[in-house]
Every structure is written in structure tokens, then in C-alpha cells.
Amino acid sequence: MNTLPQTDDQWREWLRAQGAEPLAFEVTRRAATERPYTGKYEDHWQSGRYHCICCGALLFDSDTKFDAGCGWPSFWQAAEPGAIKEVVDRSHGMVRTETRCAQCDAHLGHVFPDGPQPSGLRYCMNSAALQFKDPE
Fold first, then answer.
1. Which residues are catalytic?
2. For 89-117, b where at least 16 C-beta lie within 10 A, e where not — what string?
3. pTM of the full predicted structure?
4. Which of 61, 62, 80, 105 has its CA 20 to 30 A from that of 48?
5. Which residues are within 8 A (CB) of 117 and not within 5 positions of it... i.e. 6 or more apart?
6. Rounded to whole angstroms, how far apart are CA atoms 47 and 62?
7. pLDDT tens digits for 46-91?
8. For 6-23, what is each residue's pLDDT tens digit?
């Protein structure tokens, strides 16, 4: 892996070079949230894997994606143990669990305890933080 950017300008340029959508910087580096039902992966059901747009780390497998009806791509399990870091988020007058890429600390979304079994979790992700790759 190449050395990741350090400054905001470097991150913006890096994400542009990765083909990321314009909102990716605000989502991944500033913890913004895309509007519901607007992300490119919300209604995307192709078989493959979802990686971090910032560093390429594997985050989710399409086999764990489900329609949560919430407007964001949702998964019931990370692709690998330790791929997702969880952080307490007290913004917007509520307490939630923020999800971040364990490799580069990019904001991905939030995780909630209302998903399907076997995990009971709903990883509610921003499409702008993800990069889909076909199965290898």
C-alpha cells in the first residue's frame, strides 16, 4: 500500500484519483452523511466485495448485504474480523455507534442492533465511502 495522504488537500486529490464521487471527502474525512436513497450502492445487488474508497481495505461481502429499508446500503457483518472500528458518536443530540475503517480511520457510517440474524446488526454505510469490486 502506498503512503496515505495527510492533509485535506492531499485527501481530496487522492480520492479524485481513485474515481471517488465528490461527496467522498466530506463523508470519509468529515463524517458527513449522504442523503437516504441517493447512494449508488443502496439498491446495488451484484455479487462482489465492498472496499474502503480511501485505502482499499476489504470491508463487506455482498453475501451479507440486505435491504433494511433505511435508504443506505446495509450489511449484517463485516467481511473480516477487525476490518471495522467502532467509536461512540454523541453528535446530533443522540448516542450512536460510528463505524470507521480500521486501516485508515475513514468514516463509513453507523452500526445498529436491529439487523437480521445471525448477527442482529445493521451496518448502515454511506455509498460514498465504499468501492465495489467484482468477485475475483
1. 124
2. eeeeeeebebbbbbbbebbbbbbbeebee
3. 0.92
4. 105
5. none
6. 6
7. 999 999 999 999 999 999 999 999 999 999 999 999 999 999 888 8
8. 899 999 999 999 899 999
Separation between Cα atoms, residue 115 and residue 136, nearest integer Å: 28
C-alpha cell at 102: 480500521
Give me the CATH number covering residue 18: 2.170.150.20
Contacts 24+ apart (CB under 8 A), 101-106: 101/52, 101/54, 101/55, 101/57, 101/59, 101/129, 102/57, 103/52, 103/55, 103/57, 104/4, 104/52, 104/54, 104/55, 104/57, 106/28, 106/29, 106/52, 106/53, 106/54, 106/55
User: 54, 53, 51: which is closest to 83 by C-alpha?
Assistant: 51
Q: Which domain holds residue 102?
A: 8-133
Report the candidate in 29, 20, 37, 31 with the shortest Cα–Cα distance to residue 132: 20
3-class secondary-structure state, position 12: helix
C-alpha cell at 32: 458527513
β-pairing verdict for 96-101 and 84-89: antiparallel
Q: Is residue 12 one of the residues assigned to a domain?
A: yes
